[in-house]
Each structure stands twice: as structure tokens, then as C-alpha cells.
Request: fold
Amino acid sequence: MDLSRIRNFSIIAHIDHGKSTLSDRILEITGAVDGREMRAQYLDSMDLERERGITIKAQNVRVDWNDHVLHLIDTPGHVDFGYEVSRSLAACEGVVLVVDAAQGIEAQTLANCYLALENDLEIVAVLNKIDLPAADPDLYASEIESVLGVPAEKILRISAKTGDGVDDLLDAIVDQIPSPVGDAEAPLQGLIFDSHFDQYRGVVSSIRVMNGVLNSGAKLRFLQTSATHEAEEIGVRLPSSTPVDSLGPGEVGYLIAGIKDVGQAKSGETVTTASKGSDEPLPGYLDPKSMVFCGVYPVDGDEYPDLRDALDKLKLNDASITFEPETSGALGFGFRTGFLGLLHMEIVRERLEREFDLSLIATAPSVEYLITTTGGDEVRIDNPSELPDMSDVEQIAEPMLTISILSPAHYTGPIMELCQTRRGSMDRMDYLSPERVELVYRIPLAEVVTDFFDQLKSRTQGYASLDYEPAGYEVAKLVKVDILLNGQQVDAFSMIVHREKSDDYGRRMTEKLRELIPRQLFDVPIQAAIGGRIISRETVKAKRKDVLAKCYGGDITRKRKLLERQKQGKKRMKSIGRVEVPQEAFVSALRLDD
Reply:
């Protein structure tokens, strides 16, 4: 295919600014989908995406417009899926940046725009939702010009819902986004930018051909793993998967090579021909750094191998997950799993339960701490139970974030109060316009991963938006709070918290567990401790069995003997009795912040 007739682009925006709706209209206007088959969020294939109304996985589709072939990639908007966006941009020459004409620039708009600029991509700016009564396109066009430097007169105004202006946008994509470069005569170089596992066909990879030609039936070599496979089927998504004989430079499609081992077709892999192929791998991707960690355990211990297989298959489709085996005295065998954020953690857990039919327990989220021992060694831990004895610890450093909050100016007070109670320090405050303000704070990651986003939304009636990026480590006064049941430590409930908040955490946890743990035949003390110091205690009172029920009158010494025997039995039971924590109690207790 003539390279000058190809355009590869992504649609990027903040959450709910209309990316998926715009994709729907493009599919409809270009005739890629028949009007009878059209449905909302057409490219969002997961039930989870439809239920939540968000895009989780980037999807690509090929459409025709005015003798040109357009490869469209619809990307997620939430900050937790930024890695998904960055992978998609490697397969493009330009982006369509969508801004809501009723809300203006939000935090993720800026983050995604800077991502596109880092990748040297052409930006086509669009104001969407001009049909809304609250839309003010002139105001937000001048805001985009002042913040992003895109001339106001070049910003297109459309309504993805009604289709108004989408034809002009498609023309602008053809005019402004450059065509790809590549040499059809050169050795094959193809970049895998996404994959998923199909139980009947094996690994299905999304691929962008950079140089050379990918032919169906060709013997292929994967440069990272040095494995060779045959291209059983190559094709394009129209949006239904349609096989083709070959893909040339600049084209985007899919590849099925009968791969059953999920580790052999990772994102960022370079594909070439087995003979006379290229030895030069493409740049690929940086591995994403997990920010939030939690233990994931099967409710039924026999499902442990199934959980391992499920995580392997899901990692192929979502390369940002990390996991390694771990054991817990309370929960048995499971995996310490790393995520990019809380929403990411929630989505992955739900996908594991739905797509692989598992019942799971997730421990409280924690972050990765940097421990300096008295011997001068540095140790990284992401599980509170791995913390060395405090007598061997010189200092603990916690990960920090730089967070950017965009909000209407009259919510500035509640936002500042929230950030200060979470140990945040302000870097700067900028007014984008008289009505809108950007607040930049440096704040510990551990304070953000619990319920910071929910609190921010409730204090600003949903108008504030949040973006964040890692900002190194900082030494803090942190302690580990252990929970003891009947003198036995329960590792799943251990938490590393700031010294000032430790008493509050210990008190809340013991109170909650007192309500959740069933009564035993003996008193069960529930204690929160820092090292050897108990900071809070609650007691689950014993069940009482009436051993005197059979005694009608008679000698008092007989009654005393029975009561004494019961007392001795309880004492013996307490010394050997182990308190079993029911699964529901774990799930409820770990939702402490709810």
C-alpha cells in the first residue's frame, strides 16, 4: 500500500470527554459498522468497560476515508491506565486530543498531551460536546491556546454524540497528521504493542509493521525470546477481524502464530523473518513501575495453580501487572501483586474473578518502602510483614508523588485542607483562568492509595481532576502496627503507618475486628502493637455454657466442682486454642477506610 495514503492516530483525552463516543461516530460515518449493528462504546469489548462506562484496554480499528486508510486507536483516560496510552502512541504518528467544551482542560488532558509531545507526535486539538447547554467553546479554546500553545482558530469544534463536525475532523486528520515512514525492501521489523490470549487460537498480538512486509505463512523470529513461529494468520480489524495476505510498512493489524506460551509474545517484542531478518530490535517499552502492592489469595487453597495461570494470561494482556508467590500464616499461599494504582488493582481483581472464575481475597494495599539498616544496607519491601526488627532499622523512606489537581477556584480551601491532612506540602498554585486553578502538591503515595481520590471528588462535588507522577523517596517517622489475636500475630493485618496516625489505625482495627470475629468458648483478646508496646485492646467475650442446668438443688460443693472443671477446661483451651478468622471478616476488616 502507498505509504502517503496511511494515517495512524490515537484518540487521547481525560475520562468522560468523549473518546469512545467519537470512535463510535467515526466507525459510523466511514461506514465501517452497519447502522443496524451499531451500539454505544462499540470498541469496548469487555463487560467491565460497558458497566463502568470507561475504557480499560486500548483498541485499534482500520477505516477508509477519502481514498486514505486510517488506523484509529481508542485509548483509556484514567491515570492508572497511562501505560496503556504510552504503548499505543508508539504505533502512531499523531493524536486527536479531545477536550470537553463544558469542562475544559483537566489533569489527564495535560498528562496525555505531554506524553504525545515526548513521542514527537502531531496534535489535532478538538473541543467536543458543543451541543451541551453548558458548553463554552470560545472560553476553553482560549484556555487550550494559553496552556498548550495550540492556536484557538485551529481547534476544531465537534459533537461526537450528534456527529456534527466529525467529517471536518477526519479531513483534518488526513491533512495534518503525517504519513508513516518505512522501507518495504528492508528486512521485516514489526512492533507488538498489545496481546491477548484466546483459548482456541493461542496468543493474538496487535502489531505495527515499521519496515519490510509481513506475509501470511512466513517463518518469524521473535528477537527478545529468540523463538521462531509461523504466521498462521495475519489480518486487520475492520472492526471485525479480517485476514489479509500481507501487511506492509506503516500498517497496523493482528498476528496469530500459534503461540501457547504467554511469555513469548510480550508487548514491545520485535518480530522479524527467520531467514534474512533484521538483527536490530525496535526500542520497545520501558517496564512500568508498580506503585501499589497487595496480596491476592484464592478463597479455596486448591485454586492456587489456577490463580497462577490466570495471572500469566492476564499479564500478556496487561503488561503493567507484576506478581511473585508469597505465603501468609492466615491466608495460605497467594501472590504479592503490583499495580499502577487503586483503580487498576480493582479492575485486575475483578477481571481475574470474572474471566477466570476465581474467588479471591485481596489484602490491604501497601507501597514499596526503602529501609536503611543499622549496618548500612538498603532493602526494598512492599509487604509490611517483611519489615526487619525496628532495632535493626536506621531509617525508613517512603515513596512520594507530585500530584496535580485542576479544579474550579472556589474549591481551593477544601482541597488544601485535604492535602494537608494527608501530609502534603504545596509546590505551587496557578490560575489557568479566573475560574480554574491548578494546585501542585508533594504528598506521600501511602496517603493517596487508600481513599484520597474519593475524598477529593466528594469535597469538590466531582469537579476536580487528579494526575500524579512519582517523585522519589523521603525519610519519614514510620512504624509497623501488628494485630494480635489471642497473642498470635496475624500478618495479613500488619500495616506500616506514620507514627502520628498509628494509635488511630490500631484503635479502629481492633474495634472492627471485635465486631467481626465470632465468639469462642474462651475470651479472645484483640491487640494492636508497635513492637512490644500494646497501643489498643478489645476483647471478644466467651460463649457461656450452663454446666449447672442438670443440678436441681443438692449440695453446693457439687456445683462448685462443675464450675471449677469448666474453668480449667477454658484455661486449657485458651492455651492451645487458635482463633480462626472467617474469610468474610478478612474482607470486611481490610476495607477499614470504607
